[in-house]
Write a structure and sequence with these properties.
The chain is mostly beta strands. The protein is built from 5 helices and 28 strands. The radius of gyration is 24 Å and the shape is globular.
Length: about 475
């Protein structure tokens, strides 16, 4: 089995909730404890807390393998005293006495929290640092998603991602493999902060919490968002936080490709010093190709960071300088062909980071004609056109068919002239090229100066 790491926080289940008055089944209001699997299995018939697996018909995800530093641990079910275990809990499920209502509770959980704990004489402790684990420990989880497979949107973890893969994605046979090194979590007793629920909102909106209640705890978690409203290219994406309470993922509106990561946490450490954290995200080649039209597998870290700058868009008043690093991942080693982007030195309370193209993307259309040809009309404007009009610079437009992370050339390169920004590319016969209505076409604008070729901008069109 390929290596993968994970561990889980007690806070995850509370902070994943967007509901009012709903305590999580796996959180129970404490910052360093979780409930065991048996406690989130039987239906909740009381008037307190939220529903459990007994309150929903969803065939829940099951942890089929848990290892810590290479040593197998108890997977599904309650762990024995003196050993590590894992709980899979639904969030925002209605109790028996509640009626499903959007923004309140649901018949099917909209998130699933996966939490690793240490069973200390019946006390399921989420803070694992007292039990021999460190920030260099390796925790590996393999999860059969079952009914959650077709519903899986984004996933958020606390930790440093080392492996991420999903086999048979989008099906009830999907199996998720994750590997994380655990990281610190603010120690917050939420019962003492009834006005700080903003820290738990998804999407991240704010976190009116100046300081944590005790020294940070070493934890790890995995929160699965069962969100089918995302563009399909984002389903199964992972991002993670260090020194954070919760995170969220948002994609840009139609016509303006971008996506945004948000994280929330207490502004200061328990010591009173300003808190700094880390946000990491696994961005697959397929995601970058299908959404931006980039051939990211052929790009260097410098090229991709230039093409897709990451900008803090909120909570910037006393933001500290951050460092952004793009690291290449491969499916053979880390489980995913793509990139791990790491943003270090984040200050809080609730910053958001937007990923979007630096230059104006090409606009236009792709139309299937009665003749069987696909005509692609492209217009270069704004900062992209300015880059192409620089002295001794020649720009060309490449047109490709998109299938997953793969690009297949369509038609010839078209030179962009300084006095013309609009051009038409007539692709090969639609049938032989495998094109039909709904097919994705990538358009890339390249600039060549002094023999050096650089990507100016790119875009995705759908054949109509």
């Amino acid at each position: 089995m390929t290596r993968r790491y994970s561990r889980v926080i007690a806070t995850i289940a509370l902070v994943c909730s967007v509901l009012i008055g709903q305590a999580s089944a796996s959180f129970a209001g404490m910052y360093d404890h979780v409930q065991r699997q048996s406690e989130v299995t039987l239906a909740n018939t009381t008037s307190n807390g939220s529903g459990t697996w007994g309150n929903t018909t969803l065939n829940r995800p099951v942890v089929t393998s848990l290892t810590i530093d290479g040593v197998p641990q108890s997977a599904d079910g309650d762990a024995a005293s003196g050993s590590f275990g894992v709980t899979v809990a639904p969030t925002n499920v209605c109790r028996t006495d509640q009626t499903p209502s959007a923004g309140y509770c649901y018949s099917t959980p909209n998130r699933v929290a996966v939490s690793v704990y240490y069973n200390d004489a019946g006390d399921a402790q989420a803070d694992l640092s007292a039990h021999g684990l460190t920030s260099e420990s390796v925790i590996e989880l393999e999860i059969a998603l079952n009914d959650a497979g077709p519903l899986l949107g984004w996933s958020y973890a606390t930790g440093n991602p080392k492996h991420w893969s999903i086999t048979n994605p989008g099906t009830t046979s999907a199996v998720l493999s994750v590997a994380l090194e655990p990281r610190e979590v603010p120690a917050i007793n939420w019962q003492l902060h009834p006005g700080a629920q903003g820290c738990s909102r998804i999407p991240v909106q704010g976190c009116d919490l100046t300081i944590s209640d005790a020294a940070d705890t070493l934890q790890a978690n995995l929160l699965l968002s069962l969100d089918t409203t995302l563009d399909e290219v984002f389903r199964g994406t992972l991002f993670a936080g260090d020194d954070t309470v919760i995170g969220s993922f948002e994609s840009g509106p139609v016509g303006t490709p971008s996506f945004t990561y948000g994280v929330a946490s207490a502004h200061n450490e328990f010591s009173g010093e300003q808190r700094t954290g880390v946000l990491s995200a696994v961005i697959s080649d397929a995601m970058l190709t299908s959404y931006f039209g980039l051939d990211s597998s052929a790009m260097t870290p410098e090229a991709i960071s230039t093409a897709l700058p990451i900008v803090r868009t909120t909570d910037r008043t006393d933001a500290l300088p951050t460092t952004v690093v793009w690291t290449r991942w491969t499916s053979g080693t880390e489980g995913t062909d793509g990139w791990l982007v790491t943003i270090s030195g984040i200050s809080f309370s609730a910053p958001k980071y937007k990923v979007a193209q630096a230059k104006t993307r090409p606009s236009g259309s792709a139309k299937l004609k009665a003749s069987g040809k696909v005509n692609v009309a492209v217009e270069i404007s704004g900062s992209a056109k300015t880059a192409c009009n620089k002295k001794k610079t020649t720009c060309t437009v490449n047109v490709y068919k998109v299938v997953g992370a793969n690009l297949t050339t369509l038609g010839d390169q078209i030179r962009v002239r300084s006095n013309k920004s609009a051009l038409v590319v007539s692709a090969a016969n639609a049938t032989s090229a495998g094109l039909s209505k709904g097919s994705k076409i990538a358009v890339q604008v390249w600039a060549t100066k002094s023999g050096v070729k650089t990507l100016v901008s790119s875009s995705i069109f759908k054949v109509k």
